[in-house]
Design goal:
5 strands, five-stranded mixed β-sheet, alpha+beta, 198 residues, 54% helix
Length: 198
């Protein structure tokens, strides 16, 4: 059902406007939350973005355009942010890879609404992810070591620390989430997890 719905959403352009709205609304109300509950993150994200594209096309296009405009500069800043942490982790022998993830358009829109922020005020349109390669029994310890190294370089906002490793979400999601002040003077959202959790 989810695969079929995803295919329908991808080909929604061929439908009349009233059907687009009906199917997109139903998708955001029923199918995207179901995908979330089942832990199908990639499907959920695409369903939510496609639903927003048809229910609020102006908002969707505006946010997409803004993300496209800042992508180059933001990715460059985040690469500089990552480097000293990765160098230190290598010295300590903590096998880790880093990624820069772009938040989905729908996720950005939700955060803007929830926090009553403009796009410029929202720091988390891009996320840094540190992923450690270690045995399952060492995951928690390795993730906290990465957090310790990270906070040696950057000041954390301790009120925003979320420990989804000790207390996983209902859909099985596990990760350590932190917000730290980057060298460019902006907050950076960081996720720390193991390869298994990823």
């Amino acid at each position: 059902k989810l695969s079929d719905r995803l295919h329908n959403m991808r080909t929604l352009d061929s439908m009349p406007k009233h059907k687009q709205l009906k199917i997109a609304s139903e998708t955001s109300y029923l199918y995207a939350p179901l995908a979330y509950r089942l832990g199908l993150h990639a499907i959920r994200i695409e369903l939510e973005d496609l639903a927003l594209k048809y229910t609020n096309p102006t908002i969707y296009q505006n946010i997409k355009k803004r993300v496209d405009e800042v992508r180059g500069q933001r990715v460059s800043e985040l690469r500089k942010f990552i480097q000293p942490v990765m160098d230190e982790l290598a010295k300590l022998g903590i096998k880790t890879r880093a990624e820069i993830k772009e938040r989905s358009v729908n996720s950005i829109w939700k955060r803007m609404m929830e926090k009553e922020l403009s796009f410029e005020e929202l720091y988390a349109s891009f996320i840094v992810r540190f992923i450690t390669d270690c045995p399952k029994e060492q995951e928690r310890l390795e993730c906290w070591k990465i957090y310790a190294v990270l906070t040696n370089f950057y000041r954390p906002n301790t009120a925003k620390l979320k420990d989804w490793i000790s207390f996983p979400k209902t859909n099985g999601y596990e990760s350590l989430h932190a917000i730290v002040m980057g060298p460019a003077g902006t907050w950076v959202e960081v996720q720390i997890r193991s390869e298994r959790m990823d």
